[in-house]
Amino acid sequence: MTDAEKPRLDRQTMCNRLAMAFEENWVVNLGVGMPTLCSNYPLDDRGVIFQSENGLIGLGAHAAVGEEDPNLVNAGSQYVTLKPGAAIVHHLDSYTIIRGGYVDLTVLGAYEVAENGDFANWKTAGRKGGGIGGAMDLAAGAKNVWIAMVHTTREGQARLRTRCALPLTAAGVVSRVMSDLGLFDVTPEGFVLREIAPGFTPDEVRALTEADLQVDPALCEVRGA
Predict the structure, then answer these.
(1) Residues with catalytic annotation?
(2) First to last CA, the chain
């Protein structure tokens, strides 16, 4: 079986692993796409507050089929639930929270992340791309920026790069990346593989990574996989 054929981590498992690391009483913004799955992981005992840029503060898991409320959607227009004590605020107020530095962590998607913490998430090569949206505000305003993304493109090209080839969303802000091959920290020395997807070896992950990759001596399989 080739590396391309080996089963990788599914998206919910990836987001569960990130959610496991959310700290007590953090305000966590979840970006459009894969990151919204983080709200499905139960964190009731930690006091984590999920914030959505469209104005939900205290959102919960995705709504079950048949239980959707058309007035309750996250930033990706997915139906969600609310936790006790939640609030719905104006879009402008939501961005005041983000720009005011009240968000402890934002989890965003990306097309590329560089070993120095740069990332690009709004334009693909050869396409005009849409607006950069709220990602720039989140990258500038949040105290921590984590990325959830697949490790390679559909063509098999690496997304963890020495330098980003696409237009940057922000420079030097990413501290952690969760891909479908493992959990990586961005350090002054570059990417460090902390946890690896079951069935893969560090050399196999290196072969699918453009940037130099260090391996934690305490490397283990991804928790919860």
Answers:
(1) 53
(2) 20
For residues 46 and 24, is the Cβ–Cβ distance under 8 A? yes
How far is 111 from 136, CA to CA, in rounded Å?
Answer: 15
Residue 28 near residue 48, CB atoms below 8 Å: yes
User: Is 145 strand, coil or helix?
Assistant: strand
Identify which of 169, 135, 176, 178 has the alpha carbon closest to the alpha carbon of residue 31: 135
Q: How far is CA 59 from CA 12, 114, 131, 132, 183, in A?
A: 17, 31, 25, 24, 25
Cβ neighbours of 133 (radius 10 Å): 15
CA angle 92–37–181, rounded 5-degree value: 125
Nearest-angstrom CA–CA distance, 56 and 218: 39
Whole-angstrom distance, CA of residue 182 vs CA of residue 193 = 7
Q: Write out the two tokens for 217.
A: 């001596």
User: What CA–CA distance (Å, rounded) separates 156 from 4?
Assistant: 8
The per-residue pLDDT for 45 is 86
DSSP state of 3: T
**Partners of 183 in beta bridges:** 178, 195
Q: Is the pTM of this model over 0.90?
A: yes
Reported as a pLDDT band with limits 50, 70 and 90, residue 49 is: very high
Tally the C-alpha atoms within 13 A of residue 19's C-alpha that lie toward its C-beta. Answer: 27
The residues, ordered by sequence, that sit 6+ positions from 167 with a Cβ below 8 Å of its Cβ are 120, 122, 123, 129
